[in-house]
Amino acid sequence: TNKSKTTMVIFGGTGDLTHRKLIPALYQLHINGFLPEDFTAISIGRRDKTTEEYREDLLSSIKRFSSRNFEEESFESFSKMITYYRLNFEDQSDYEDLRRELESRDKEGVRDSYMFYLAVSPSYFSEIVLNLKASGIREKDSLWQRLVIEKPFGQDLESAIRLNDSISSVFDEKDIYRIDHYVAKEMIQNINMLRFQNAIFGSIWNKDHISNVQITVLEKEGVGTRGGYYDGTGALRDMVQNHLLQLLAITAMEPPVSLDTDDVRNEKVKVFSSLKPFTGEHLDEKLILGQYRGYQDEEKVDPDSGTETLVATKVYIENERWEGVPFYLLTGKGLKNKTAQITIEFKQSNRYNYGKVSEPNILEIKIQPDEGITLHLNIKEPGVVDKIAMVEMDYCQSCLYLFNSPDSYEKLLLDALNGDSTLFTRWDELQLTWKYVDSILEKVNESRKSMLKAYEVGSNGPEDLSSFIDSGANHWWYLN
Ligand code: BG6
């Protein structure tokens, strides 16, 4: 038979991520006709709730968090696809009930596909997956079964290995989809296009023409209600190990043979294996840790906490293309604005003397809140005297496309439903990034307290940040 149906099983159905991201993303996929035929979702939570009540909650989440205009009719058809199911993550017999629930939905002559989505606290990841096996759900005859797993994937290399051992005793690597939502952001996906479909960039994307790369992911918000998770984590683990290193790999990788999943992932892995080892010498020239004032008073945060809410670090890639080019990574919470961008600073070109040195060309890849690309050029200021001036050529994507770019989760859910894991993190990528971040943490942990620099909420971070960039004409371009 060719008939099939797809069931998404969401663990953590009453959680924040489900309401803010997953449900609005599914709703938008539904409106645009991207959901597979005969799609349903079972949203699992620990609370007692009827499906009716749950659908009420969905209504308000969609109204609040979906970027599309609300449509009564499409909500009706959408909400009918979703049912609420109560299950205690720690209770084995509950999983057997879930298996019976799934069996009761079997249809004669229709093949099933299952997407299990773990939107729960990481402490349950392993337990849920093992129970999918123990209850017999995993053995159910199906076209495919995939596991989508949120971050954080472990707290260090060791715990990541433990978690991976346990989930890969149940799912094959090819069926494990580890989320990094930054990779799915519209402008990040644009980088391949920009680099490889434009001769002017492809040919100069190397150490001969680029002096440094700055990857900045800044947030205005503090930790909010997430202190319990964040205080044991910090910015290195929460942002650098995954999002920032992924952005670095996508910016720096060699052109993959094709854009097929493994070709792309193999190139990223090569970048991660070429990272110059992080040693403890001259620590302050390679790493700044900051903590915003007032962090220690946040809910569920240790009043004497040494956790970093900001990191600036300098990374080198030891290969032919990038030898000697610093990649500056900066991320932090409680800053002036929420912005993310990748800034490529080219080498200066000063053939003639116009009384003032020219500025380096700068390529800004703007990720959020605005999406776009800006190129800084030196030109002659109009007038009878030759004077050099800097102009910006601007492609504002968010101005041009009046609808919102698809949210990362829309893209990720669709890819996972279609079996495309290119944007998800393969196990070897994860191992290498953890290994790198572990080596930083190891150096930091002895002197963390003395290293930590305080900064004001709403500022541009600690004072010393500006001197962190190597001398010369270079500076943090995000400060412009
Ligand atoms: C998450 C981090 O992965 O990314 C959060 O755990 C952070 O601490 C968030 O706030 C930022 O994502 P975005 O898409 O809002 O920039």
From TrEMBL:
GO terms for molecular function: glucose-6-phosphate dehydrogenase activity; NADP binding. Its EC number is 1.1.1.49. It catalyses: D-glucose 6-phosphate + NADP(+) = 6-phospho-D-glucono-1,5-lactone + NADPH + H(+). SUPFAM superfamilies: Glyceraldehyde-3-phosphate dehydrogenase-like, C-terminal domain, NAD(P)-binding Rossmann-fold domains. It holds the Pfam family G6PD_N. It comes from the Bacteria. NADP(+) binds at R46, K151. Keywords: Carbohydrate metabolism, Glucose metabolism, NADP, Oxidoreductase. GO terms for biological process: glucose metabolic process; pentose-phosphate shunt, oxidative branch. Pathway: Carbohydrate degradation; pentose phosphate pathway; D-ribulose 5-phosphate from D-glucose 6-phosphate (oxidative stage): step 1/3. Residues 9-190 form the Glucose-6-phosphate dehydrogenase NAD-binding domain. It is an enzyme of class 1 (oxidoreductase). The active site is at H243. Substrate binds at H181, K185, E219, D238, K333, K338. GO terms for cellular component: cytosol. Residues 193-477 form the Glucose-6-phosphate dehydrogenase C-terminal domain. Belongs to the glucose-6-phosphate dehydrogenase family. Catalyzes the oxidation of glucose 6-phosphate to 6-phosphogluconolactone. PANTHER family: GLUCOSE-6-PHOSPHATE 1-DEHYDROGENASE (PTHR23429:SF0), GLUCOSE-6-PHOSPHATE 1-DEHYDROGENASE G6PD (PTHR23429). NCBIfam families: zwf. This is Glucose-6-phosphate 1-dehydrogenase.
